Amino acid sequence: MRRVLILGAGTGGSIMANRLRKESRRHGLGFEITVVDPEAQHLYQPGLLFLPFGQTTLKKILKPKRRFIHKSIPIFESPVASLDAAAKHVVLGNGQTLAYDILIIGTGAKVAPEETEGMTGEGWYQNRFDFYTLEGAQRLQAALKNFTGGHLVINIVDMPIKCPVAPLESAFLADAYFKRRGLRDKVKISYVTPLDAAFTKPVAAGVFKDILTTKNIELITEFNTGRVEGNQIISWDERTVDFDLLVTIPLHNGADFVKASDIGDDLGFVRVDKETLQSEKYPEIFALGDATNAPASKAGSVTHFESETVGDNIVRFVKNQELLKDFDGHSNCFIETGGSKATLIDFSYDIEPLPGKFPYSGIGPLRLLKETRLNHWGKLAFRLIYWYILLPARWLPIGRHCTMKGKYRPN
Amino acid sequence: MATKTLGGKTFEVDEQGYLKNTADWSEELAKLLAADVGIAEMQEGHWKVVKYMRERFLKNGDSPSIRTLGKDSGVTTKELYALFPKGPAKLAAYVAGIPKPRGCI
Question: What is the ipTM for the molecules in this complex?
Answer without folding.
Answer: 0.76
